[in-house]
Sequence to fold (462 residues):
Amino acid sequence: MANKDVTDPARMEKIVSLCKRRGFIFQAGELYGGLNGCWDYGPLGTELKRNLKDYWWRKTVQERDDVLGMDGSILTHQDVLKASGHIGGFSDPMVDCKTCKGRFRADNLDNLQCGQKPSCQPGDHKTCELTEPRAFDLMLSTKLGALATDDDPKAVAYLRPETAQSIFCQYKNISDSNRVKLPFGIAQVGKSFRNEINPRNYTFRSREFEQMEVEYFCHPDDGMRLTDEWLEKRLEFYEEIGVPREKLHILDVPDGERAFYSKKTYDIEYEFPFGIQELEGVAYRTDYDLSVHQKGSGKSQEYFDEETKEKFIPHVVEPSAGCDRTVLAIICEAFDEETLTNDKGKEEIRTVMRFKPTMAPIKVGIFPLLKKNEEQVAIAKELQAKLQKWMPVFYDESGAVGRRYRRQDEVGTPYCVTIDFDTLGESGEELKDTVTLRHRDSMEQERMKIDDLLPWLLEKVK
Ligand code: GAP
Fold:
C-alpha cells in the first residue's frame, strides 16, 4: 500500500506551470486577481476534458442497453434539496483562527497551512487561536424571478451541489417514457457547485466542478452485487483512459464513516503528486433517495414488477466521478521528463505528455519539412484539410522539424506527420506519396502512404 503522505510538490509545480504555459488550465478571473476555487480550461484543456466526457458517455450510455442519459437543470428547486437533506445538512466542520482570521476545514487541518509566518498547520503556531468547529453550509444559492425581493424566501433556488438529484427527480418520467425494466441506470454529466471552505490542490477541490454520475436503479436483492460490478467497470475505465490500476487504491469505507443510508461505499483513489486522494465514489445508496422524494413530493416512486407482481421502491447504486479530478489525474499520469542525448552528445530533457491517443487534445501534427517548398506546403495543407474533418490536427511550418516535434510532445500529440522530399518523389517512385510518421512515445519514425493515414489514425484515436 502506497503511503498517503508521500507527495511530490516539485512535480506538481512543473505540471501546473506546463498547464498554464501551453493553455490547458488558467485561474478563473486571473486578470482581476483570481476567483478562488474556479478554473477556466484553455484550448487544450477543453479538448482533453471533452475527450474524457465523450469517452465516459460512450462507455456508460452509448455502448450499454441499460443506461439512459439526461441533462438536468443546474438551478434547483429548494424543495428538492430540502427533501434530499442538503438544505440544512450539507456542510463541513469549520474552525476560525482568531489571530490570522483564517477559516479552515476542521477535518482536514493536517493538509492545511495557517496564515502566519512561518506557516504551519492551523493550531500549531504558538499564537494560533482556533475556535470550536461549527457547521459551514456548502450550498450556493441565488434568487429567481424579476419580482424577487431580498427577503422573499420562496424566490431562493440553489446551484445544484451534485448532478444526482435531478436524476432522482426525473426517475419516474424517464422510466415511464422509456418503458424500461429494472435494473437500469440514468447517467448525467454536468456542473455542480459547492462553497468549499478551502479549495485546494489546483483543480482537485473546486467550488465549481463537473461530475459524471450514474444512478443505477435495481431490486433490493441486487444492490450489493451491482456495487461490486460497478466498481470493476469503473476500474477498467480508468485503465482505458491512461490511469493505471497500480496507481489506484480502493477504500472500502468502514461502517460509521459512510453516509447513514449507504450499505456499501468504495472510494476510488489516485496517487496524485499531492497525496492519495479520491477520484470517484461507488456507493450503494439503498432506497434512500427515491423514498425521500416520494415523501417530499407526495408522489409514488414505486416500481411494479410485471413478472413477480412485486411493488417496491428501487434501490440505487451510484458510481459518481469527478470530471475535473479525472482530467487532473490524466494530466499527472501523462506528465514525463525524459533525459536524451542530442546529436552533439549533450544531455537534454524532453518533456512529454504521454496521453492515450483517445484522450490527447491534438491527435496529429502536420509539418511540411521546408516552409519555402510550395509543393510540400500544398500537400501538407491538403492533408490538414482532409484530417481535420475527423479529429483535431495542428499544422506547423515554423522552425526546425525537431523543435516542432518537441512542441507537440509537450502537449501530448501522439503522432506527427512530415511531408518531405521523398513525398514529392525525389528519392524515387517507391517513396512518392508517402510521409514520415513519427510516434511520440518511442520517437520512432516510419514511412506511410498518405492515403493510408486517415484509416490508420481513426483506428488509433477512437
Ligand atoms: N452524488 C454523490 C456525490 O456527489 P461526492 O463524493 O460528494 O458524491 C462525487 O462527489 C465526486 O465528485 C467526487 O468523488 C469527486 O470526484 C467530485 N467532487 C466532489 N466535490 C468536488 C470538488 N469540490 N471539486 C472537484 N470535484 C469534486
